Amino acid sequence: DLPTVIKAAAKLGHIPEMAFVIVGEAQALDRVAEYCQMYGASNVKLLPFQPREKLPEMLAAADVGLVVQKENVIAFNMPSKIPLLLASGCAIVASVPATGTAAKAVSNSGGGVVVHPENPDALAAEIEQLYRHPEKTAALAAKGRQYAIENYAFEQALNSYESLFSSLAK
Questions:
Q1: Angle CA 84–143–120, to nearest 5
Q2: Neighbours of 78 (CB within 10 A)
C-alpha cells in the first residue's frame, strides 16, 4: 500500500531529519516517484534492489521499519519482512489489519506497534510519536530483537521442527 506510505511521508515533511527509504524494482520505483510528486513527499529516497546479503545491513540501518498491507488482506498473510526486521533490531510500525497474522506477530514480539491500514494520518502519527520518543523506539527494537533470537533463530527452528515431527510420529 505505497500511496498510504507516501501520504504519511508527506505529512512528516516538516521533520528534516526524517527520511523514508523505499527499495524496489526500477518499474515500481518509477510509480513510487510519481506518488511522491503527486503528494509532495520530498523526504522519500528511492533505491534499487540490493544484493540479498545486504538486506540485514539495510534493515538494521533503519530506526523504524514499516510493514504495510491493505485492509482486505487475508488474515493469515505473514510478511517475511517481520522476522527480518525484528532480527535486525529495528522497531516496527505495522499498518495492517488488526485481526491478521502480521498484527499478531508484531504485537506478540513486543517489537512494534500496529496501526489501522490505509490510514496515512494514523501511520504518520505513530511514526512521529516514535521519532519524538527515541527511548520507546529503542525499547521496541530491543524487545523485537530478543523475541527474534528466542523464536526465529536457526537452533530454535530446528527444535520446533523436531518437536513437531516427534509428535506426528507418535
A1: 65
A2: 14
Cell numbers at 103, concatenated: 498484527
The rounded distance, in Å, linking the Cα atoms of 79 and 102 is 7
pLDDT at 122: 97
> Do 100 and 115 meet the contact criterion of CB atoms below 8 Å apart?
no
How many residues are recorded in the chain? Answer: 170
Which tens digit of pLDDT belongs to each residue from 81-111? 899 999 999 999 999 999 999 999 999 999 9
Helix (H) or strand (E) run with residue 34 in it: helix 26-39
106-125 per-position pLDDT tens digit? 999 999 999 999 999 999 99
Among 77, 59, 69, 68, which residue's Cα sits nearest to residue 148? 59
Whether 91 contacts 114, CB under 8 Å: no
Q: Can you tell me the distance from the alpha carbon of 58 to that of 50, in angstroms, rounded to the nearest whole number?
A: 9
SS3 content of the chain, % helix, strand, coil (to 5): 60, 15, 30
User: Rounded distance, CA 24 to CA 32, Å?
Assistant: 10
The whole model's pTM is what?
A: 0.88
